[in-house]
Amino acid sequence: MPRFIDRDIRTAVSHRVPFFYGWVIVTAAFFASFSGGGIQAFTFGVFIKPMSEGLGWSRTAMTGALTVRTYAGAALSPVFGRLVDRHGPRYLMMLTAIVGGIAMLLLSRVVTIWQFYALFGLMGLSGGTGAGGVVTEATVSKWFIRLRGRAIAFGTMGNVAAGVILAPLVGVVIAISGWEAAWLVIAAIFFGLLLPFSFLMARQPEDMGLLPDGAKSREEVQALFQRKGNMESAYSWRLKEALRTRALWILLAAQVIAGFPSSSVVIHHYSYITDEGFSSAVAAGVLGTLAISAAAARIIWGLLVERYPVRYCMAASYFGDVLGLLILLTGLNLGFAPMLFLFSVVYGLNIGGTVVLTSVGIANYFGRDFVGTIRGTMMAITTSSVALGPVLVSMAYDAQGTYFRAFEVLVGLFLISAFVVLFAKPPTKAEQVSPAQGDL
Protein backbone atom coordinates (compact mmCIF):
# COMPACT_ATOMS: atom_id res chain seq x y z
CA MET A 1 0.00 0.00 0.00
CA PRO A 2 1.29 3.51 -0.77
CA ARG A 3 2.57 5.39 2.26
CA PHE A 4 1.08 8.86 2.01
CA ILE A 5 3.13 11.68 3.45
CA ASP A 6 1.52 14.05 5.94
CA ARG A 7 0.63 17.46 4.61
CA ASP A 8 3.84 19.54 4.52
CA ILE A 9 5.75 21.79 2.17
CA ARG A 10 5.88 19.03 -0.49
CA THR A 11 2.09 18.66 -0.53
CA ALA A 12 1.64 22.42 -0.70
CA VAL A 13 4.09 22.73 -3.60
CA SER A 14 2.56 19.77 -5.49
CA HIS A 15 -0.85 21.48 -5.37
CA ARG A 16 0.51 24.80 -6.61
CA VAL A 17 2.83 23.87 -9.47
CA PRO A 18 1.14 23.42 -12.88
CA PHE A 19 3.33 20.44 -13.78
CA PHE A 20 4.25 16.97 -12.51
CA TYR A 21 5.91 17.10 -9.07
CA GLY A 22 8.65 14.82 -10.36
CA TRP A 23 10.25 17.86 -11.98
CA VAL A 24 10.52 19.47 -8.53
CA ILE A 25 12.43 16.33 -7.48
CA VAL A 26 14.70 16.78 -10.51
CA THR A 27 15.34 20.43 -9.60
CA ALA A 28 16.27 19.46 -6.04
CA ALA A 29 18.60 16.77 -7.41
CA PHE A 30 20.21 19.39 -9.67
CA PHE A 31 21.07 21.66 -6.73
CA ALA A 32 22.29 18.69 -4.72
CA SER A 33 24.77 17.77 -7.46
CA PHE A 34 25.70 21.45 -7.90
CA SER A 35 26.56 21.71 -4.21
CA GLY A 36 28.56 18.48 -4.32
CA GLY A 37 30.41 19.83 -7.35
CA GLY A 38 32.26 22.14 -5.00
CA ILE A 39 34.53 19.32 -3.88
CA GLN A 40 34.46 17.16 -6.99
CA ALA A 41 36.69 17.01 -10.03
CA PHE A 42 35.93 20.25 -11.88
CA THR A 43 36.31 22.57 -8.92
CA PHE A 44 38.86 20.55 -6.98
CA GLY A 45 41.28 20.86 -9.90
CA VAL A 46 41.35 24.64 -9.40
CA PHE A 47 42.45 24.21 -5.77
CA ILE A 48 45.35 21.85 -6.53
CA LYS A 49 48.05 24.37 -7.47
CA PRO A 50 47.35 27.18 -4.99
CA MET A 51 46.92 24.85 -2.00
CA SER A 52 49.87 22.61 -2.88
CA GLU A 53 52.14 25.62 -3.37
CA GLY A 54 50.84 27.51 -0.34
CA LEU A 55 50.96 24.58 2.06
CA GLY A 56 53.89 22.68 0.56
CA TRP A 57 51.90 19.58 -0.35
CA SER A 58 52.60 17.45 -3.42
CA ARG A 59 49.92 16.88 -6.07
CA THR A 60 49.81 13.23 -5.06
CA ALA A 61 49.06 14.25 -1.48
CA MET A 62 46.36 16.66 -2.63
CA THR A 63 44.54 14.15 -4.84
CA GLY A 64 44.85 11.55 -2.10
CA ALA A 65 42.11 13.46 -0.27
CA LEU A 66 39.74 12.63 -3.13
CA THR A 67 40.58 8.96 -2.63
CA VAL A 68 39.73 9.18 1.07
CA ARG A 69 36.46 10.98 0.30
CA THR A 70 35.46 8.55 -2.40
CA TYR A 71 36.21 5.43 -0.35
CA ALA A 72 34.34 6.87 2.63
CA GLY A 73 31.32 7.46 0.41
CA ALA A 74 31.64 4.01 -1.12
CA ALA A 75 31.65 2.37 2.31
CA LEU A 76 28.19 3.79 2.99
CA SER A 77 26.73 3.78 -0.53
CA PRO A 78 25.02 0.36 -0.09
CA VAL A 79 23.49 1.61 3.18
CA PHE A 80 22.42 4.90 1.62
CA GLY A 81 20.94 3.04 -1.34
CA ARG A 82 18.89 0.76 0.91
CA LEU A 83 17.72 3.71 3.04
CA VAL A 84 16.56 5.73 0.05
CA ASP A 85 14.61 2.72 -1.27
CA ARG A 86 12.82 2.30 2.04
CA HIS A 87 12.55 5.78 3.53
CA GLY A 88 13.37 8.30 0.82
CA PRO A 89 16.08 10.94 0.40
CA ARG A 90 14.82 13.85 2.49
CA TYR A 91 16.74 13.39 5.75
CA LEU A 92 19.83 12.03 4.02
CA MET A 93 20.08 15.24 1.99
CA MET A 94 19.55 17.38 5.09
CA LEU A 95 22.43 15.55 6.75
CA THR A 96 24.63 16.14 3.72
CA ALA A 97 23.83 19.87 3.68
CA ILE A 98 24.62 20.42 7.36
CA VAL A 99 27.73 18.24 7.60
CA GLY A 100 28.98 19.39 4.21
CA GLY A 101 28.60 23.06 5.05
CA ILE A 102 30.48 22.64 8.32
CA ALA A 103 33.25 20.71 6.57
CA MET A 104 33.67 23.51 4.01
CA LEU A 105 34.00 26.08 6.80
CA LEU A 106 36.71 24.00 8.43
CA LEU A 107 38.53 23.44 5.12
CA SER A 108 39.21 27.16 4.98
CA ARG A 109 41.37 26.78 8.08
CA VAL A 110 43.35 23.59 7.39
CA VAL A 111 47.12 23.72 7.89
CA THR A 112 48.06 20.03 7.86
CA ILE A 113 47.40 17.26 5.37
CA TRP A 114 45.72 15.01 7.95
CA GLN A 115 43.11 17.71 8.60
CA PHE A 116 42.48 17.97 4.87
CA TYR A 117 42.02 14.19 4.61
CA ALA A 118 39.78 14.02 7.68
CA LEU A 119 37.39 16.66 6.34
CA PHE A 120 37.18 15.02 2.91
CA GLY A 121 36.51 11.71 4.60
CA LEU A 122 33.71 13.36 6.57
CA MET A 123 32.20 14.60 3.32
CA GLY A 124 32.20 11.07 1.94
CA LEU A 125 30.62 9.64 5.08
CA SER A 126 27.91 12.30 5.04
CA GLY A 127 26.89 11.33 1.51
CA GLY A 128 28.11 14.62 0.08
CA THR A 129 29.59 12.99 -3.01
CA GLY A 130 29.54 9.32 -3.93
CA ALA A 131 26.73 8.16 -1.67
CA GLY A 132 24.85 11.41 -2.35
CA GLY A 133 24.76 10.50 -6.03
CA VAL A 134 23.12 7.20 -5.17
CA VAL A 135 20.42 9.03 -3.21
CA THR A 136 19.44 11.60 -5.82
CA GLU A 137 19.82 9.46 -8.94
CA ALA A 138 17.89 6.54 -7.45
CA THR A 139 15.10 8.91 -6.41
CA VAL A 140 14.78 10.48 -9.85
CA SER A 141 14.71 6.98 -11.39
CA LYS A 142 11.71 6.12 -9.23
CA TRP A 143 9.74 9.17 -10.38
CA PHE A 144 10.17 8.60 -14.13
CA ILE A 145 9.98 5.76 -16.65
CA ARG A 146 9.17 7.20 -20.07
CA LEU A 147 11.18 10.38 -19.51
CA ARG A 148 13.84 8.83 -17.27
CA GLY A 149 16.76 9.70 -19.54
CA ARG A 150 16.11 13.43 -19.68
CA ALA A 151 15.05 13.56 -16.01
CA ILE A 152 18.32 12.04 -14.82
CA ALA A 153 20.17 14.25 -17.31
CA PHE A 154 18.70 17.43 -15.82
CA GLY A 155 19.09 16.16 -12.25
CA THR A 156 22.79 15.39 -12.66
CA MET A 157 23.65 18.54 -14.60
CA GLY A 158 24.38 20.36 -11.37
CA ASN A 159 27.82 18.80 -11.20
CA VAL A 160 28.89 20.10 -14.60
CA ALA A 161 27.09 23.38 -13.92
CA ALA A 162 29.47 23.69 -10.99
CA GLY A 163 32.29 23.38 -13.51
CA VAL A 164 30.80 26.16 -15.64
CA ILE A 165 29.85 28.50 -12.79
CA LEU A 166 31.54 27.45 -9.59
CA ALA A 167 35.02 26.54 -10.85
CA PRO A 168 35.62 29.94 -12.54
CA LEU A 169 34.13 31.69 -9.50
CA VAL A 170 36.47 29.79 -7.21
CA GLY A 171 39.36 30.71 -9.48
CA VAL A 172 38.49 34.41 -9.22
CA VAL A 173 38.04 34.25 -5.44
CA ILE A 174 41.39 32.47 -5.07
CA ALA A 175 43.11 35.11 -7.22
CA ILE A 176 41.61 37.95 -5.18
CA SER A 177 41.33 36.61 -1.64
CA GLY A 178 43.09 33.25 -1.54
CA TRP A 179 41.96 29.63 -1.41
CA GLU A 180 40.68 29.99 2.15
CA ALA A 181 37.92 32.38 1.04
CA ALA A 182 36.97 30.05 -1.82
CA TRP A 183 36.04 27.28 0.62
CA LEU A 184 33.73 29.73 2.43
CA VAL A 185 31.89 30.36 -0.85
CA ILE A 186 31.25 26.64 -1.24
CA ALA A 187 30.05 26.41 2.38
CA ALA A 188 27.47 29.10 1.64
CA ILE A 189 26.18 27.00 -1.27
CA PHE A 190 25.67 23.95 0.96
CA PHE A 191 23.71 25.96 3.50
CA GLY A 192 21.91 28.26 1.07
CA LEU A 193 20.97 25.85 -1.74
CA LEU A 194 21.19 22.21 -0.71
CA LEU A 195 19.53 22.51 2.70
CA PRO A 196 16.35 24.33 1.53
CA PHE A 197 15.83 22.02 -1.45
CA SER A 198 16.25 18.88 0.67
CA PHE A 199 12.85 19.63 2.26
CA LEU A 200 11.16 19.09 -1.13
CA MET A 201 12.40 15.53 -1.70
CA ALA A 202 10.08 12.49 -1.60
CA ARG A 203 10.82 8.79 -2.11
CA GLN A 204 8.53 7.96 -5.05
CA PRO A 205 5.35 9.30 -6.70
CA GLU A 206 3.13 6.63 -5.14
CA ASP A 207 3.92 8.05 -1.68
CA MET A 208 2.18 11.28 -2.73
CA GLY A 209 -0.74 9.63 -4.50
CA LEU A 210 0.89 10.10 -7.92
CA LEU A 211 2.25 7.81 -10.65
CA PRO A 212 5.53 7.86 -12.62
CA ASP A 213 5.78 10.51 -15.36
CA GLY A 214 2.50 12.00 -14.14
CA ALA A 215 0.51 9.09 -15.59
CA LYS A 216 -3.26 9.17 -14.92
CA SER A 217 -3.72 5.44 -14.28
CA ARG A 218 -1.79 2.23 -13.64
CA GLU A 219 -3.05 0.96 -16.98
CA GLU A 220 -1.19 3.83 -18.63
CA VAL A 221 2.00 2.81 -16.81
CA GLN A 222 1.61 -0.83 -17.88
CA ALA A 223 1.05 0.24 -21.48
CA LEU A 224 4.31 2.17 -21.31
CA PHE A 225 6.22 -0.95 -20.26
CA GLN A 226 4.72 -2.85 -23.18
CA ARG A 227 5.79 -0.15 -25.65
CA LYS A 228 9.32 -0.12 -24.22
CA GLY A 229 9.73 -3.86 -24.76
CA ASN A 230 13.07 -5.23 -23.52
CA MET A 231 14.50 -1.72 -23.01
CA GLU A 232 12.66 -1.35 -19.69
CA SER A 233 12.05 -4.00 -17.02
CA ALA A 234 8.56 -4.04 -15.52
CA TYR A 235 9.87 -6.48 -12.94
CA SER A 236 11.83 -5.03 -10.01
CA TRP A 237 14.83 -7.26 -9.37
CA ARG A 238 15.97 -7.85 -5.81
CA LEU A 239 19.67 -7.29 -5.18
CA LYS A 240 20.35 -11.02 -4.82
CA GLU A 241 18.60 -11.69 -8.13
CA ALA A 242 20.47 -8.93 -9.94
CA LEU A 243 23.81 -10.24 -8.67
CA ARG A 244 23.09 -13.55 -10.41
CA THR A 245 22.70 -11.93 -13.83
CA ARG A 246 25.42 -11.71 -16.45
CA ALA A 247 24.30 -8.19 -17.35
CA LEU A 248 25.09 -6.70 -13.94
CA TRP A 249 28.65 -8.06 -13.89
CA ILE A 250 29.40 -6.88 -17.42
CA LEU A 251 28.07 -3.40 -16.63
CA LEU A 252 30.14 -3.45 -13.47
CA ALA A 253 33.32 -4.48 -15.31
CA ALA A 254 32.89 -1.73 -17.91
CA GLN A 255 32.33 0.89 -15.21
CA VAL A 256 35.34 -0.23 -13.16
CA ILE A 257 37.66 -0.08 -16.18
CA ALA A 258 36.32 3.30 -17.32
CA GLY A 259 36.45 4.67 -13.78
CA PHE A 260 40.24 5.09 -13.89
CA PRO A 261 40.31 7.51 -16.84
CA SER A 262 36.97 9.24 -16.21
CA SER A 263 38.03 10.54 -12.79
CA SER A 264 41.66 11.19 -13.76
CA VAL A 265 41.28 13.29 -16.89
CA VAL A 266 38.97 15.92 -15.43
CA ILE A 267 41.22 16.42 -12.39
CA HIS A 268 44.61 16.49 -14.15
CA HIS A 269 44.05 17.96 -17.61
CA TYR A 270 44.15 21.56 -16.25
CA SER A 271 47.60 20.99 -14.74
CA TYR A 272 48.74 19.00 -17.78
CA ILE A 273 47.91 21.89 -20.12
CA THR A 274 49.73 24.49 -18.01
CA ASP A 275 52.72 22.16 -17.56
CA GLU A 276 53.09 22.05 -21.35
CA GLY A 277 53.57 25.82 -21.52
CA PHE A 278 50.02 27.05 -22.08
CA SER A 279 48.75 29.90 -19.92
CA SER A 280 46.36 29.41 -17.03
CA ALA A 281 43.82 31.45 -19.04
CA VAL A 282 43.91 28.86 -21.84
CA ALA A 283 43.64 26.00 -19.34
CA ALA A 284 40.70 27.69 -17.62
CA GLY A 285 39.04 28.23 -21.00
CA VAL A 286 39.46 24.55 -21.86
CA LEU A 287 38.06 23.58 -18.45
CA GLY A 288 35.05 25.85 -18.89
CA THR A 289 34.39 24.61 -22.42
CA LEU A 290 34.62 21.01 -21.25
CA ALA A 291 32.13 21.72 -18.48
CA ILE A 292 29.67 23.35 -20.91
CA SER A 293 30.03 20.44 -23.33
CA ALA A 294 29.53 17.94 -20.52
CA ALA A 295 26.37 19.76 -19.47
CA ALA A 296 25.01 19.60 -23.01
CA ALA A 297 25.99 15.93 -23.16
CA ARG A 298 23.68 15.08 -20.26
CA ILE A 299 20.67 16.20 -22.30
CA ILE A 300 21.87 14.65 -25.56
CA TRP A 301 22.54 11.23 -24.06
CA GLY A 302 19.43 11.47 -21.89
CA LEU A 303 17.29 11.84 -25.01
CA LEU A 304 19.21 9.20 -26.97
CA VAL A 305 18.93 6.55 -24.26
CA GLU A 306 15.14 6.97 -24.28
CA ARG A 307 15.17 5.74 -27.89
CA TYR A 308 18.15 3.38 -28.19
CA PRO A 309 19.46 0.48 -26.03
CA VAL A 310 21.62 1.74 -23.20
CA ARG A 311 24.57 -0.58 -23.91
CA TYR A 312 24.97 0.84 -27.42
CA CYS A 313 24.82 4.37 -26.03
CA MET A 314 27.46 3.55 -23.40
CA ALA A 315 29.79 2.00 -25.98
CA ALA A 316 29.45 5.03 -28.27
CA SER A 317 30.18 7.34 -25.34
CA TYR A 318 33.36 5.45 -24.40
CA PHE A 319 34.57 5.52 -28.01
CA GLY A 320 34.01 9.27 -28.02
CA ASP A 321 36.15 9.59 -24.91
CA VAL A 322 38.98 7.81 -26.73
CA LEU A 323 38.73 10.24 -29.64
CA GLY A 324 38.73 13.23 -27.30
CA LEU A 325 41.89 12.14 -25.47
CA LEU A 326 43.72 11.46 -28.72
CA ILE A 327 42.91 15.02 -29.81
CA LEU A 328 44.24 16.36 -26.49
CA LEU A 329 47.54 14.48 -26.73
CA THR A 330 48.01 15.57 -30.33
CA GLY A 331 47.26 19.19 -29.51
CA LEU A 332 49.68 19.24 -26.59
CA ASN A 333 52.38 17.58 -28.70
CA LEU A 334 51.96 20.18 -31.47
CA GLY A 335 51.51 23.09 -29.06
CA PHE A 336 48.31 23.97 -30.94
CA ALA A 337 45.73 25.58 -28.61
CA PRO A 338 42.65 25.16 -30.91
CA MET A 339 43.03 21.39 -30.62
CA LEU A 340 42.78 21.68 -26.85
CA PHE A 341 39.41 23.36 -27.20
CA LEU A 342 38.35 20.73 -29.73
CA PHE A 343 39.29 18.12 -27.13
CA SER A 344 37.11 19.84 -24.53
CA VAL A 345 34.11 19.72 -26.87
CA VAL A 346 34.54 16.14 -28.07
CA TYR A 347 35.51 14.71 -24.70
CA GLY A 348 32.91 16.74 -22.83
CA LEU A 349 30.09 15.63 -25.14
CA ASN A 350 30.93 12.02 -24.33
CA ILE A 351 32.16 11.89 -20.74
CA GLY A 352 29.24 14.07 -19.69
CA GLY A 353 26.80 11.29 -20.51
CA THR A 354 28.43 8.65 -18.32
CA VAL A 355 26.48 9.32 -15.13
CA VAL A 356 23.19 9.50 -17.05
CA LEU A 357 23.77 6.27 -18.96
CA THR A 358 24.92 4.43 -15.82
CA SER A 359 21.87 5.42 -13.79
CA VAL A 360 19.42 4.81 -16.62
CA GLY A 361 21.00 1.44 -17.40
CA ILE A 362 20.54 0.11 -13.87
CA ALA A 363 16.94 1.33 -13.62
CA ASN A 364 16.05 0.08 -17.11
CA TYR A 365 17.59 -3.36 -16.54
CA PHE A 366 16.48 -3.99 -12.96
CA GLY A 367 13.34 -1.89 -12.33
CA ARG A 368 12.41 0.95 -9.92
CA ASP A 369 11.82 -0.55 -6.50
CA PHE A 370 15.38 -1.52 -5.55
CA VAL A 371 17.42 0.71 -7.83
CA GLY A 372 19.01 2.49 -4.86
CA THR A 373 20.13 -0.76 -3.25
CA ILE A 374 21.58 -2.11 -6.51
CA ARG A 375 23.17 1.20 -7.48
CA GLY A 376 24.70 1.63 -4.03
CA THR A 377 26.16 -1.88 -4.05
CA MET A 378 27.68 -1.38 -7.49
CA MET A 379 29.12 1.98 -6.50
CA ALA A 380 30.90 0.41 -3.55
CA ILE A 381 32.80 -1.69 -6.12
CA THR A 382 33.31 0.83 -8.93
CA THR A 383 34.66 3.38 -6.48
CA SER A 384 38.01 1.60 -6.35
CA SER A 385 38.99 2.68 -9.83
CA VAL A 386 37.40 6.12 -9.54
CA ALA A 387 39.36 6.80 -6.36
CA LEU A 388 42.67 5.26 -7.40
CA GLY A 389 42.83 6.69 -10.92
CA PRO A 390 43.75 10.29 -10.04
CA VAL A 391 46.28 9.14 -7.42
CA LEU A 392 48.01 6.74 -9.81
CA VAL A 393 48.20 9.47 -12.45
CA SER A 394 49.68 11.84 -9.84
CA MET A 395 52.26 9.20 -8.92
CA ALA A 396 53.15 8.74 -12.59
CA TYR A 397 53.58 12.51 -12.92
CA ASP A 398 55.73 12.77 -9.78
CA ALA A 399 57.93 9.90 -11.03
CA GLN A 400 58.24 10.93 -14.70
CA GLY A 401 57.68 14.68 -14.61
CA THR A 402 55.00 14.39 -17.31
CA TYR A 403 51.44 13.20 -17.73
CA PHE A 404 51.92 11.80 -21.25
CA ARG A 405 52.45 8.08 -20.53
CA ALA A 406 49.66 8.01 -17.98
CA PHE A 407 47.21 9.59 -20.43
CA GLU A 408 48.18 7.01 -23.06
CA VAL A 409 47.10 4.28 -20.64
CA LEU A 410 43.81 6.12 -19.99
CA VAL A 411 43.03 6.01 -23.71
CA GLY A 412 43.46 2.23 -23.71
CA LEU A 413 41.19 1.77 -20.71
CA PHE A 414 38.34 3.70 -22.32
CA LEU A 415 38.74 1.56 -25.45
CA ILE A 416 38.49 -1.68 -23.46
CA SER A 417 35.34 -0.44 -21.68
CA ALA A 418 33.69 0.37 -25.01
CA PHE A 419 34.05 -3.23 -26.19
CA VAL A 420 33.14 -4.83 -22.86
CA VAL A 421 29.84 -2.99 -22.41
CA LEU A 422 28.53 -4.18 -25.79
CA PHE A 423 28.04 -7.63 -24.24
CA ALA A 424 25.72 -6.35 -21.49
CA LYS A 425 22.39 -7.58 -22.88
CA PRO A 426 19.30 -6.89 -20.72
CA PRO A 427 18.52 -9.66 -18.21
CA THR A 428 15.40 -11.76 -18.84
CA LYS A 429 12.90 -13.11 -16.34
CA ALA A 430 9.59 -14.86 -16.83
CA GLU A 431 7.94 -13.31 -13.78
CA GLN A 432 6.63 -9.78 -14.45
CA VAL A 433 5.08 -8.91 -11.06
CA SER A 434 7.06 -6.61 -8.76
CA PRO A 435 7.93 -8.07 -5.33
CA ALA A 436 6.90 -6.46 -2.07
CA GLN A 437 8.68 -3.20 -1.36
CA GLY A 438 10.16 -4.38 1.92
CA ASP A 439 11.77 -7.51 0.48
CA LEU A 440 15.29 -6.56 -0.55
What does this protein look like?
By secondary structure, the protein is mainly alpha-helical. It has one domain (9-421): Growth Hormone, Chain: A, CATH 1.20.1250. It contains 18 helices and no strands. It has helices spanning 9-16, 22-36, 41-55, 59-87, 90-107, 113-125, 130-143, 148-177, 179-198, 218-228, 239-243, 246-275, 280-304, 310-334, 337-351, 354-366, 371-400, 404-421. Helix 5 (90-107) runs antiparallel to helix 6 (113-125). The radius of gyration is 21 Å and the shape is globular. The relative contact order is 0.16.
Summarize this, please?
This protein is an all-alpha fold and 440 residues long.
In helices, the fraction of residues equals: over 70%
- Derived from helix and strand composition plus strand pairing, the structural class reads mainly alpha
**What count of structural domains?**
1
CATH architecture verdict: Up-down Bundle
Number of strands: 0
Overall spatial form: globular
Tell me the β content.
under 5%
Using the coordinates above, name the CATH class: Mainly Alpha
Mean pLDDT: 85
Instruction: Tell me the span between the first and last alpha carbons.
Output: 17 Å
Main sheet attributes: strand count, strand direction, barrel closure = none
